[in-house]
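Much of the work behind modern protein science is quiet bookkeeping, done one molecule at a time. The protein below has been through that process, and both of its lines are reproduced in full.


***
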Amino acid sequence: MVHYKKKGFPSEGDLVICKVKNVLSHCAFVELLEYTSKEGMVHISEVASGWVKNIRNYLQENKQVVCKVIGINRDKGYIDLSLKKVSSGERKAILSMWKMEKRMEMLVEHISNRLKKDVSEAYKIMCDPVVEKYGSLSSFYSSIGEEGVKAIKLLEIPKPWMGELVLAIEDQIKSHRVRIKGTLQLISYERDGVNRIKEVLSELPANGVEVHVRYLGAPKYRLEVLAGNYSVAESALSEVLSSIESRAKTLKVEYKWSR
């Protein structure tokens, strides 16, 4: 069940998640799951390219589909939809966003249970500011992976709710963090070689990620980077290795990296 829904109408050209309610010989009526009390129609001519012999080969009751909004009559409340105008790439992207919406809803419900508050109150207090700031729950959830708790700093949410949201997001980040690791080989033939190697590994750039170095036994060290997603982790790793290589060269320490 979807608890948080958008108000009003979608815009023409929007991609929407729908649930098929009723299939007739020439069209199908669907519920727009992201909107409050909104239904639309998919005409048989908008089901697939070419001639459609039986619409039920494409649409069945209770099936979830991604449609494109191709027409709106606000006065009558009509929403015309197309199935064939949605590409496979668009379908995958929308379904991915839909999954993020569900995860965000689960976060809100978890927080409402911890605070012993009504779920509908929780959605109003927490989701309305999120949608106002980020445009959608999925955009906010996506930004969590990139920014962490920074994503909620500008939200106007009461302190008790804000505190619980921060804790929930931190738990989510910890459970979904990406881990990249490899082995460093650092060798120095100088008398103060140990100190030189320590200096090479000191003050490594972190920039919002976790960087850990563990001694494995001369001359090897385990280097590990933890971040919210692979893109951030790879970028941070590149910066860390660049710093190590530069210092190693300056301090005459032999350097080798392998995954």
Q: What stands out?
A: Residues 15 and 68 are 5 Å apart (CA to CA). The longest strand covers residues 64-73.
